[in-house]
């Protein structure tokens, strides 16, 4: 190795000036000069100069200057534009006012401008110079304008065209792409993607070189990969990870066997430069042997170039740069001509110099753009101008090297014709050596279908942020990462973040779940890659709906290549993780794809409702454990209003295992609630107590017990929502814990911990939200999510939801495409619907939990069963896959002072029949028996249609029977009197029906002493109301007829038919009410089947009750109450009539009516005041009281009077006392009459007709 020492100085014809000045960095004289603006620095820092040297452009500037020195008459001035338009303007104004003389002493005019800068030079040239301007395009997006600008692309369009044609000839129609981070490679990739669409080449995956090196591949299986690489040295780092390659590079270092030894099969396409551009050593000599007229200081840019690029050192004493091994520098410069595309700059200069010479020869001293015609532009031997773009002239040639097993098999030069065909035929050329592998689509190839969507797109650029992981199948997720959707106004579509909600962790969990799925489920999707796209809904439900609708209708364009952009054709599943939304975005049901919504508790919803609930408890696990321990008599404590807990499910599980719940109380939350709960626990014979509660309630309860002596076996059960942190809780020894498996995902927790700590992770999600949220938390001093257990559980729920959707998708793939797990073309139309159909069939194990989508109402997860003992937390069993295993030898019970007992504490029913609240239990916390838990106001009993042998029922039957018997005796007595002739004139047309109605009233008590049946329940209403209506209807009719007698006059009478019809119609109204009620309410018997624990065995019993409520019962009798009130009000009109009627006095009717009203008031009051147990008795007592009142108040005085009425006819004539009859003085007047009080009757006792004998007794007259 020899040492090369040289001094970097200005050349004889070269002027060097400070890089930040507005004088040229490099310049050469000529009859005219070409101004070159190139970014030798990346930017400008105020007025203090430029910063960030661009060493690539530094080499390009020197190469262009060197080309200008090769015998050209056109000079060059190279300026550092620093990416600043203001600096370019200052340079142009300075250039126009200074003198740059040629050899004749005449100022050299500007013949043209070349720019390779981020500054908008094209906006300044027309106004200040008006000359030809060529912009060298370095892969950015600056468009070609119509102001005289000509575009020259550094990326070679012709090279990409040759590449595309070769791929088509090799049948490489399904490929992946790999590119480095240089602008040239990125631009060539974009060009290739455009040409690939027209050539029918599908892109399966796109990677960067770093992706391949770090193995961040998306498992898209293509046989071949197309590589865009400027530095072939990088190929050694990743070549072995990909099988077959077609490489487009401008680096000629393929001769290095060390680089190629990792390549199996490859075609390498490189530039076929002119011999002088590649092998001419003059440029290298120029760079190494700059003339040494003047020494330079260390800070000069030229010195720094060799120090930075070639690791040279600076000798301050001799002011020289010392470099080792000049061959290394020569190799680098040789490669740089290709990799940095320096020759393009030289060719552009030659193009501009040629134009300048022609303009000068045609006497156009201003070198105006207007002087240039098409012929001038077409004289370049290298370029042709088309559409304001410099293109290489045909035929364009390129070198191709065939690499096999790390060695160059053969090399050749290929050219393109005017028809863009490559000659010779590359397929024949390869066949002459050895076959080259194909890379074609044989199955799904989703990239091949992308054009079906994007060709119909409206080019609406997606206006939000998203994360995209490509794959054969893509799962789309919507997460509210931003806080506000800016619907109206300029600027960003969304703004703000939600760091306290930790949605960055939720998004990371989704992306991590997608990328780790194949490693977690290696048997699924063996030949299929799974990708993801994550949309930010900006915390707005309608924004999510907009994204869904536009994406599914192919209206979005993305900042990806057309083949590699997200497409709905590859998305069979949508997931929503917006915890504020309670439904899926609008349109989710209309897209015909599986759409799942997850809430904060991990519950999964589809458009039709809940399909999976992990927040519930596994009651079967608890009941099976109690049965195995023979703990069949237990207590129950729960938190109030606790979601996820179902008392009905617990009741079903315990009943099926013959376990009786003795009491149910709520866990106390305040000091005044503790004593009642503790009293219930201590007084109960249940030795085992189940606790379903939140961590806070359980902690408060056990801390409250530290000062109380309560010795029980406690069993605490946790769920996904009511997750319990047992660490700080003072649990007594012997407490048994049911702890959920996999409350958090261990793999993701480790990934998140490393991510937050800034450590390297195995799975790279490229989630930019992690850094955004971290910065937001840092600014606002919000704690990191690493300590938030709730967020970590939600992240685990996200991964479970993803796994559920992918399990349905896996089943759909097998159903549609067969069991080989490869995608088929028919999956495109049939796959989404099949995925929705397969959701209910999903069964999977997730982190120890068993997920069964067929039973969404049951939690089928797994439990770890532990016991708190003096030696710590001891595992005593587990519940896995619906199977219980108990380690009985590990279980212990303890006494009040913490000493272990010899045997486990039993907890069984102490008597033959136990009072169990788990039968039809409610959550009111009361300790009640099963029958009491039935609706108390219904009066349930366990018999039907049977006589109730209670004391009050027997007394009621005795009284009712006695009263009915008395009424029957009176009825027979009156009939005997009637048929005996003594009461022939008595008006009994209403008296006998009233007595019959009274008997019916007494018999109406019978339905109330029998247990409910359909007939009994109906008669309790119908007979009860009808008997009352009949009695009070006749009573009202009696009062009305009594009043009518006052106005009839002597010799008149009241129609008996009218009285009967009136009484009938009054009763008929109640009949209509009763019939209608019975028909509409039928059936009126309620039957409830329940289960009770008797002698330790669960038995089913049936309870019966009438369809009954207090308010309805009183409302039903409103007509009866109306009749009673009407009777009382009507009695005021007859109370002044105190004379006897033929049958009863008005005073008796008045007294009876008011007394019955008082009875009904008392009945109604007691009906609503007393408990349900007394209602039947109240109804029966009311019936008896009213019936006996009528008998005692009305009929007893009447019968007494009737018994004193007698006509004894004498057999021999005589005086008045012996003239053939005896007159009853109590009935001197058979019909009462009255006159006004101011008048006096002229009729006296003397004027009465006195019958002298039986023969002269006129029965038609009134005496």
TrEMBL record:
PANTHER family: METABOTROPIC GLUTAMATE RECEPTOR (PTHR24060). This is G-protein coupled receptors family 3 profile domain-containing protein. One of its GO terms (cellular component) is membrane. Residues 990-1202 form the G-protein coupled receptors family 3 profile domain. It is found in: Membrane. Residues 1-21 form the signal peptide. The chain crosses the membrane at residues 951-976, 988-1009, 1021-1039, 1060-1079, 1113-1132, 1144-1168, 1174-1196. It comes from the Eukaryota. It comes from Dreissena polymorpha. It holds the Pfam family 7tm_3. The keyword Ribonucleoprotein does not apply. InterPro entries: GPCR_3, GPCR_3_C, mGluR, Peripla_BP_I.
